[in-house]
Amino acid sequence: MYTISQLAKQMNLSRSSLIYYDKIDLLKPSCRSSSNYRLYSEQDKVKLEQINQFRAAGLSLEAIKQLLQQNNSSAGLFLEQRLEQINHEICQLRSQQQQIVNLLGQTTLLPSTRLVNKAQWVEMLEASGMDEADMRQWHIEFERKLPEAHTDFLQSLGIPEQEIEIIKSWAK
Asked: Can you give the residue ranges of the HTH merR-type domain (predicted)?
């Protein structure tokens, strides 16, 4: 059995987090000591590890609570929804990043933004020996295998939507 302090320390959490988890019925201690202190079992520790994994994936405590009540039967659905949400957030952040660089008008900032623009990408492909036909084939294969990732990639290069549609149409 673990005391609340022992378990919190092992899991790198605060005592108040475990108290809160108890309060919202997310993680109840297995028993209480004669002095009414919370005591956690090995099974509680395993459950807390699951909670921490779900938290690290960005799931809300309410979603985690639902997952644990359903014995993880819907974990895939929750995680797929979270992944879709993250993909959307990344797309929005990349767009904002591009917009800020455009507003600043300083191409010297590009290395610090971790952005690669279309011109840089084409230059790298050409430097690796690819010609227009090779690049076109590269896009066709990317589109066939991972169409959404291809779109995200093209957007991350700052390519206008109309040009993206033309590039994607090559695979049709």
From this structure: 1-70
